[in-house]
Amino acid sequence: xxxxxxxxxxxxxxxxYLYNFYSVKFDRHYTFTExxxxxxxxxxxxxxxxxxxxxxxDVNNLFRDHYALCIYSYADSRLLSCKLDKGFNVxxxxxxxxxxxxxxxxxxxxxxxxxxxxxxxxxxxTKKKIEYCRRDTEIVARFVTSMDETYDSIGAKLKMTxxxxxxxxxxxxxxxxxxxxxxxxxxDFFHSxxxxxxxxxxxTKPVKGPIFYxxxxxxxxxxxxxxxxPSLDVFYNTLKPKWELFGMADVAIVAPKGLNxxxxxxxxxxxxxxxxxxxxxxYTYFEVREAKKLGYTVKKVYRAVEFPGTCAPFVEFxxxxxxxxxxxxxxxxxxxxxxxxxxxxxxxxxxxxxxxVTKMLPLDGYDLKTGDVIFADLVLTKTKEEYTRYANxxxxxxxxxxxxxxxxxxxxxxxATPNAILLYCDTDSxxxxxxxxxxxxxxxxxxxxxxxxxxxxxKHYFDYAHFKQPKLYTLCCDxxxxxxxxxxxxSRVAKDFFKTGKASFRRPHKLRETLRRNLSPKNKRxxxxxxxxxxxxxxxxxxxxxxxxxxxxxxxxxxxxS
Length: 562
Hints:
This protein is of the alpha+beta class.
């Protein structure tokens, strides 16, 4: 693989002044101070993969006012890749679609430290700025090369995303007969029963410890490994499900009264909730079976796709990779350990890959269709294609159902323990308070609970917690360590957002946002791409996934839907 990297430097006000390419093969930097020079250079390349850390930012600087040179591929709003149009085999990829780490973190892993430099509004090019930009570019290139070599050593091939890399490995070595026997309508039906993880607050007031925090070790790989899945060889439609088999069913459900931790998920008010009451939803047969044990009633079956056969396609895959990961971990091989972890955790989601393709293309020569959006000399288009051979969705539905079931078992165990107070859960984690007794032993085994400790003093419990919203909370230890979790804001303002419900921070104007808003006649102030503008975020909603009581406890909401 001909790996290159690319990085830019700007003044934070939308004015780039350095463009740097680095080739691992030639161990050479190609540095430019003018955009035209950088564009001329990249248009002379061929058959290269260029990696960036934060792709959208760097291509925004490189192709400013020349965006129509490229084709941009998106997954929702996330830029996956960018390639030169008109026959050039030059593709840009984003390291963030593989490894969620900064350039500094990459440098630490490959023993090539990032340089220090104070960023200012000056666009004057200095030797220090050139060295800084070159070091960042080289770190990215050498990190990607290292990961490519690591993947190759275990039989994987570096692809555009970690998910596609994992699926390639799974198909080539472990499951060579991948097929998708379903119609688009059937897969769309399965998608309506594909739910994410469970995130709920059970106690909303500040609480003193001891507070225990547990994560399930590799929850999704565990669910791939330890449960059966429907065989795709034979399936049929039915309105009389045999719940002991496998399948997906659209049903009218009535929950039993009195459950404090309901079992089945339901989409309500644009949120994933776990309510009481009655509603209609699509579920795996497994979930329906387990729900019926708790007193749920199926009032009507509207549609079901049933599978009489079972399979266990992931056992060898998980066993091999988990064993190899533990071996790499014992040898303190961080790169290999990271590789195995990423490969294990990113397989199941590929089975639920959607068939909507979003691209931004040059307008010139393109035949417009209904729904296309024109951005100057570009067109944003969304098309639905055939689902890929692996996007059967039902395996992803079963995996996430098993994951929620595993978490539910932990939640139920805490609830059944005298003097234990359930506080919070999030997909694979549970937090609770007791009188000092830890309910789950600390384990390194796949699918078992491990105990999170204070990052400073390593104590196995916390002394204070307060949960305000899903993914908005604080955990404190008597040693003085205070952690704030606030999804959607930079970590440096997480404390402010938690305490006040407001946060101010700078962020750059993104490509599509800039193009869209600048074309609006209502927007008199034109945006500058990659201009770091002040952004205000305010928490405007109360916690509504459960009903909050005066004493701080919460109870399930009740819904009534047909």
